[in-house]
Write a structure and sequence with these properties.
This protein is mostly helical. The protein has helices at 14-20, 24-30, 43-49, 54-67, 71-83, 86-119, 125-159, 167-194, 206-233. The chain folds into two domains: 14-79, no CATH class; 85-237. The model has no long low-confidence stretch (mean pLDDT 90).
Length: 239
């Protein structure tokens, strides 16, 4: 039995579109439409901010949905996250995304530092990249530790009706986490801008190219990570 075709409108919330149609995240990322940190707003607002035409965006999304062979599989994968209990979702986020950040952030830092040291005198933006990336690395590592040690245990306890803190205290803590997500998202936007969408110079060495590839992967993983938290996990504790 074939499923009903997906239909999107200008007033659909961006994050809801990605939950309903995960492949849309690729389109949004390519067109610099924020679906994670700034995803809780109507599509038309996000599109207008980027100076795009809403009718063209809707047409592209409908075309993508109609021609995406893996639509059912993608939807099933996203539904698994939506249907997971909070403890299981938290465990997934930690094992898939937090562990990735702890392993990857220091290694990419070495590459960024090396490329800046070797090529920074000629490619002046590399100095700015080094400063931005260092800030991002430090903030994300502190952020994930705080989530695991302070916030996630309180979520699990509340989900299991074990009172460890007030609902308002947890709500306020989540608001701070979302603010930190916004800050990380803004840094990533700056990094994308100064690296020309992670496009290395034509004469870039192998390390230079690998650094940009790993930065692009870090951005993709961070957007997925923040989407799971902001748009699936956190709303369970914000009602």
């Amino acid at each position: 039995m074939s499923s009903e075709p997906l239909v999107f409108s200008a007033n659909h919330i961006v994050s809801d579109i990605v939950i309903k149609f995960p492949k849309a995240s690729d389109y949004f990322r390519d067109h610099k439409i924020d679906f994670c940190c700034g995803g809780k707003r109507p599509l038309v607002d996000a599109v207008q901010e980027r100076g795009l035409d809403i009718d063209e965006v809707l047409e592209a999304l409908h075309h993508l949905a109609a021609n995406h062979a893996g639509l059912n599989e993608d939807n099933e994968a996203m539904n698994r996250f939506v249907e997971m209990d909070s403890q299981s979702l938290i465990q997934y986020i930690v094992s898939k995304h937090h562990d990735y950040l702890r392993a990857e952030l220091p290694e990419v830092y070495k590459n960024v530092a090396r490329v800046n040291r070797v090529h920074g005198e000629h490619d002046l933006h590399l100095g700015q990249l080094y400063v931005l990336y260092t800030k991002l690395k430090d903030e994300l590592l502190e952020h994930t530790t705080n989530e695991e040690e302070q916030i996630f245990p309180r979520m699990v306890a509340q989900d299991q009706s074990i009172e460890t803190s007030s609902h308002q205290e947890l709500y306020d803590s989540i608001q701070l986490l979302e603010d930190e997500h916004d800050q990380a998202g803004n840094i990533l936007k700056e990094i994308r801008a100064i690296t020309n969408d992670f496009t290395p110079p034509a004469n870039a060495c192998t390390t230079y190219r690998i650094t940009y590839e790993r930065l692009a992967e870090l951005e993709r993983m961070t957007f997925e990570h923040v989407h799971l938290e902001n748009n699936i996990l956190f709303p369970r504790f914000q009602g």
